[in-house]
Design a protein that fits this description.
alpha+beta, 39% helix, globular
Length: 215
């Protein structure tokens, strides 16, 4: 009888965890209506009249736009901003992001994620921009990879790196103007080096010291 109760208890806990994960996924992706993607040959297309859309799920590297009356969620090539909130599915990613910047605490990393969100939203809201995409789908969602170019000639990914608000980590691509992926990433690495030297963004936050030995 005790073994049967024990098995039942384990099964109930497993069901609870499944429900928790399902609710987290639903919360993360709810409300994201996406535009049907046209058939393409893999070349970049330009969305010149895209507008930023306020959405609770927007963050530093993923955000909603509207183009030709249809909503679409974009994901930037080349960069990964820290998470803006903590939940079970992103705990490992948060630790990796914290380590990338030299050993931030999880609260510090989440704070950088919030700063990146505000940085991106402010620029998309206040400045004109052009989206270039190949309609390449992000593996885990309906999002599509894209480059976002401002009138000053600089890409949003580069602006985030320069501000110290992201790591150079995710899928890259050959650029719309024909520039090689390796060359653009090398430029981002140079900008990151400058941001680190200037202690901008995450690079300027105090780092945790080495753990004291137990006595």
């Amino acid at each position: 009888m005790k073994r049967r109760r024990s098995n039942l208890s384990r099964n109930l806990w497993a069901l609870v965890w499944v429900l928790v994960i399902a609710l987290q996924l639903w919360d993360h992706f709810r409300g994201k209506t996406t535009a049907p993607r046209p058939e393409t040959d893999g070349r970049f297309v330009t969305l010149a009249n895209a507008r930023f859309v306020e959405d609770a799920n927007n963050d530093g590297d993923s955000f909603m736009i509207v183009h030709d009356g249809e909503e679409q969620v974009l994901r930037l090539y080349f960069v990964d901003c820290p998470e803006k909130r903590q939940y079970k599915l992103v705990e490992g990613r948060l630790k990796d992001q914290a380590g990338y910047f030299g050993g931030l605490s999880i609260p510090q990393t989440l704070s950088v994620g919030q700063e990146a969100k505000v940085f991106t939203e402010t620029r998309l809201r206040e400045q004109r921009f052009t989206v270039q995409t190949r309609w390449e789908r992000v593996y885990d969602s309906e999002r599509v990879y894209a480059m976002v170019l401002f009138e000053d000639g600089e890409d949003l990914a580069a602006k985030l790196v320069k501000a110290g608000l992201c790591r150079i980590h995710t899928k890259g691509t050959m650029m719309p103007d024909g520039q090689r992926e390796f060359d653009f990433e090398a430029r981002l690495r140079a900008l990151e080096k400058e941001a680190k030297a200037a202690q901008r963004g995450a690079w300027g936050k105090p780092k945790r010291g080495p753990a004291k030995p137990k006595t």
